[in-house]
Each structure stands twice: as C-alpha cells, then as structure tokens.
Amino acid sequence: MKKLLSYSFWGALILLFYSCQPLVSLQIETIKPSQVNFPGAFNKIMFINLETDFNNDQEIDTLLFNIITNEMKLGFYDGIKLTPNIDSSRFIVGNHFFQSNLIYENDTINWNLLQEINRQYGTDIIIVIDSLNYIMDSGTETNYYSIPNEFYKFRELSIEVYWKMYDIYEKKIIDSFVYSDTLIWDAVDTDLKELDKKIPSVLSCVKEVSYFAAVDYSSRIFPVWKTQTRYLFAEGNKQFKIAAQLANEGKWDSASEIWKQYVKHVDKEIASRACFNLALASEIIENIDHAIQWAQISYDLKEKKRTKYYILILKSRKSEIDKLKGQL
Known about the structure:
The chain has 11 helices and 10 strands. The protein is α+β, with helices and mostly antiparallel strands. The strands form 3 sheets. Strands 4-3-7-8-9 form a 5-stranded mixed sheet. Helix 2 (about 60-80) packs across helix 6, helix 7 packs antiparallel against helix 8 (about 250-260) and helix 9 runs antiparallel to helix 10 (about 290-300).
C-alpha cells in the first residue's frame, strides 16, 4: 500500500525552545477514503456528459456542451491532483456526443456498449452525467436613501447534476448521486456601468459552477489527501526539548527512545506527555494500533480533553485505513 501520511512542522525551531507553551503543532497530510466503493485496481477512467439539450428545445447545444464539458474536465483534473493514486494521463474525456438511449435500453444499462467503449479507449471506469440543470436568478436594486444613490446587483446560479459511476469490468454501478449547489455573485456601486463590470458574465458564472461541480464530485468518488494538525509536547524537561528537536528533523525513532524513558515517571504529567508523544510518533510511522494504545495510556495517566479527542481521531483514522486497503 502507498504511504498514507506525510508531515511538516509549523513554524521555526525557535518556537520549540523559546515558546512558553508546552505544545508545538505540526501539519500532517492523511488520505481520506472515497465515499463510494472505489476500486483500487483500474486501467483508465472516462468522463461522459450525456446532457446535450441545455435549452430544452430538443436540439443539441454544441457550444454549451463543449464549454461545460471542458470546465468539468478542468475540475476533474484539479480534483485528481489531490488524489494519491490517479494522474491525468489515466483520465479520458468523451468530447463527442453520446446518445443516452444507446447507453440505456428500456431503462436498462447497455453493458455491451460500455464494454465496447472499454475496448476502444481502454477505460474500465466511466463517470456519467445523466442529467444537468441550471437555474439562474438576477436583479438590481436601488438604495434611494443614500447620497449618491447606491445600486446593488446580484446573480444567483444553481446547478443540479445527476452523476453515475460505472465499473465496466465488474458490470456494476459504483455510485449514483444527485449533486446540487448554488453560487451567488453580488456587488454595490454608485455607478451602474461600474457595477456591471463587477458581476461576471452569465457564461463565466456557468463555467465556474460547472467547474466546482466536478471538483466536488471528484472529492466524493476518489481517495484524497487532507490536511490535519497534530500536537507534540516539547516541554517537560531538557530531554523533551532534545526529543522535539529530533522529531523536527524526522528522527522519530530516536525521539521515541527518549520519551520511552519517561512513560513510568513518578510525575504523571511527564509520563502522560511522553505517552502522548509516543502516540504521535506511532501515527507518523503509520503504526495506528500502537498510536491508539499510547494515547489511551496517556489519557489513563492524565484525563485531558485533548488526549481524549486525539484517541477519537486515531480510531477514525484506523477505520479510514481499513477502507483504503481496497482503494489504493
């Protein structure tokens, strides 16, 4: 399995030695599992937009189709940048029109057609937009009580996307999800011409809301990196400062050897801090079970809210790691 965690300290080393606070913080990046049963083994992913009639006039809106599909492609590309196991070379966009009635025959999925797509493009996962709707509202209001008069303008654009995700190899639906979101742009000015310049064009608004629809959906279906903050006790005695320095240099094993000397210290505060730090060290080296054990010992020595919260975080991470085993 791929590495599930990376870290970096916040702030300079001067924080470790001259801060009055016993704790220092560090930033870690962990992998959040997909919210769906995302397969870890796959060849390529294809994105298909089946929505071609945006004006409901029974005609294909080629220009809008190309603009919206392209913006969603960019959204997926940026979403993929946050994943640990997918790169853009494995993501294909179906830029031509796919007829919905060919993919769905009598409300049944035409797996033969999907398998033909697999043979043609080498893709075994397909992300499909079944339907896509936009609702826009806009207006201008005048405040006559201000001198000079103030004008307020807004534009509100809502999007609703019916997403589906298919595993062609297994012939199953991975995800079926209705996504909805609303973006609002507004501005105030005393000059109507200047006010109009502050509000994006309708096309720009459509692009933006389409882009974020793809970004948001990618965070649902793909495992993604997420940033979290952890804490380390750098104060306690001189040895704790040395251990913190070693940890800051990435020498967690050496730092742990120092902390282990204090886990049975007569001062329970010192012992609790040592165990807390050992829990963090265990998490950093990806031994989540030992991390939970050390955190629990720390809490048993000193019942602190921070430690209790950390135990909950570690248990949640253990659950996430179990889910990730089939996704990476």
